[in-house]
Write a structure and sequence with these properties.
By secondary structure, the chain is α+β, with helices and mostly antiparallel strands. It is built from 4 helices and 9 strands, in the order E-E-E-H-E-E-E-H-E-H-E-E-H. The longest helix has 12 residues. The termini are close together. Bound molecules: coenzyme A (COA).
C-alpha cells in the first residue's frame, strides 16, 4: 500500500491510498488530537487512554489513528529505540472490528515506521484474534513470559512476537 501526504488539518498526516477513500490514517503529533480516541479505550483492558495520552508527547513515540467518516475507529502506538520499535497497543473500536481496519492500520504504520528494522510486541496468550492478525502480517513468536498479565483467574502468559521489516516482502 502506498501512502501519500494529503490530508489537511491540525496534524501532519498520511492518507492511505486505498479504495475506501473515506478512510484516512493520521499521525498523532498533537495532544489535542487524542480526544478523538477516548471511545476506543472505554471498557477495555490494555493501556489506558491516560497512559497513551502521556506517551504521544514523547519524542520516541510514533502513533497513528485511522479515521472513517471523520470518526476515530482504530489507533496504533509504538515506542522506538534506535532501529527497533515496540508496539504498545493496537485497538479497533469494538463496533468496527472484523472489517479489515486493524490490518489496514497495522500495515500502514509498518510502512510509515521509517528507519525501523524490527518490530516487537507482547500479546496475551488468550488473545487469539490479535495473534491471528499478527501472524497474518508476518510476525513470528520469539518467546513467552509466564504469568505476565493479570487474568480473570490468576495470571496468563505473554507471547512475544517480532517482525523483521523487509517492507517489500513483509508488508503486502
Ligand atoms: C485485534 C484487533 C486489533 C483486530 O482488529 P480487526 O480490525 O477486528 O481485525 P481485521 O478485521 O483487520 O482482521 C484481520 C485478520 O486478523 C484476524 N482476526 C481478527 N479478528 C479475529 C477474531 N476475532 N478471531 C480470529 N481471527 C481474527 C483474521 O486473520 C483477520 O483476517 P480475516 O478477516 O481475513 O479472517 C481487534 O480485535 C481489537 O481491537 N481487539 C481489542 C484490542 C486488542 O486486543 N489489541 C491487541 C493488543 S496486543
Amino acid at each position: 500500500m502506498a501512502l501519500k501526504s494529503s490530508m489537511p488539518g491540525q496534524y501532519s498526516s498520511l492518507c492511505a491510498t486505498v479504495p475506501d477513500s473515506s478512510t484516512a490514517v493520521q499521525v498523532l503529533t498533537d495532544l489535542r488530537g487524542t480526544a478523538h480516541l477516548k471511545p476506543l479505550y472505554e471498557n477495555t483492558d490494555g493501556p489506558s487512554y491516560e497512559f497513551l495520552k502521556g506517551l504521544v508527547a514523547q519524542a520516541h513515540c510514533s502513533a497513528w489513528c485511522l479515521f472513517r467518516d471523520e470518526k476515530a475507529v482504530a489507533a496504533i502506538w509504538y515506542q522506538r529505540a534506535g532501529d527497533r520499535a515496540d508496539m504498545i497497543d493496537l485497538r479497533v473500536l469494538a463496533s468496527s472490528r472484523r472489517q479489515g481496519l486493524g490490518k489496514r492500520l497495522l500495515r500502514a504504520s509498518l510502512i510509515a515506521l521509517e528507519g525501523v528494522t524490527t518490530v516487537d510486541l507482547e500479546v496475551r496468550e488468550s488473545n487469539l484474534a490479535a495473534q491471528a492478525l499478527y501472524r497474518a502480517m508476518g510476525f513470528q513468536e520469539t518467546g513467552r513470559r509466564p504469568d505476565y498479565y493479570a487474568a480473570a483467574s490468576g495470571r496468563e502468559p505473554a507471547i512475544l512476537m517480532s517482525l523483521a521489516l523487509n517492507v517489500d516482502e513483509a508488508v503486502s
